[in-house]
Amino acid sequence: MKKMKSFRWSTESEPHKIRTKEIIARHPEIRKLISRNPYTLLVILFCVGLQVVLSWFLRNEPWWLIFVAAYFGGAFACHTLFVCIHECAHNLLFKNRALNTLCGILANLPLVFPSSVSFQKYHLKHHSYQGVEELDADMPYRWEGALINNSTIGKAIWLLFYPLFQMIRPVRLKEIRLLDKWTLINWIVQFSFMGLFMYYFGTKATVYLTASFFFSVGLHPLGARWIQEHFLTHGDQETKSYYGVLNSVNLNVGYHNEHHDFPSVPWNKLPRIKQIANSYYETLGHHTSYTMLLLRFLFDSRLSVYSRMARANRGKIARRKAGVDSSSEVVTEP
Known about the structure:
Elements: E1 8-10, H1 17-26, H2 40-58, H3 63-89, H4 97-108, H5 116-128, H6 142-148, H7 152-160, H8 162-168, H9 181-201, H10 203-217, H11 225-230, E2 241-242, H12 256-261, H13 270-276, H14 278-281, E3 286-287, H15 290-299, E4 309-311, H16 316-321
Parallel strand pairs: 1-4, 2-3
């Protein structure tokens, strides 16, 4: 298979705003789903508590059990916490932005590395400028694509260390202030927590948390979520949803087209969007198995890190063509 040399290129703007406007015009009742879900805080408390308790019980156990527990248990708790941080980034727990930020910092605790505040800043740019490399941290570096391309071993290593690749991407972003008060608070809280955790819980418990973190977003069926969301597995369709059983423990994060179309709707109401506007979503490519998608990504030589759509169009051209006022917003934050 011939190696790919670049991302696929689009001259259009991000693909969701126009569809959102059409759906709202046809189904105005969707506006009633715009709300907040403060009960997400209970999910955060449960998952943080679960990881701390499991770490305590595993602190003197054999190494094999630590990694098995991280793969089959801790990874799911950590992934759910990532989804909670995502909800906090969209201010979908409380009306007060600071409270959402604090909840994100709380959810960050078992994830070893401070990331919640930085994610909050760059994720919103991802929604507005999907595929614009200097603004979208979800887009891989071009050197990632050149380094990994479509090698099975390379793609496995890339997924295994995906958190590290994602951590360094914000450095390239423009129009985002990487260091501010909340970022420093996130760092201080996280490093203080991990310092105390390592002192009182020990090495094996720390390895358990770290392994859970890497499995939750890396070489694991849950890591296939990053392939599902925006990799080109269905022609030029940029965003795909996942309608599988893991949505029940992943807070419906698989409803990704629905989320991009209506980012002000909390996780518990995303399935309702699909029910109301199913005619828009039933014809879109989607996934039903993370395990099968993971295997496809690893072994299908037609898929690589370059299998993404890039663009420079920040929105004005395509929206004017469609007759949409570029200064207007279809759906506002609740």
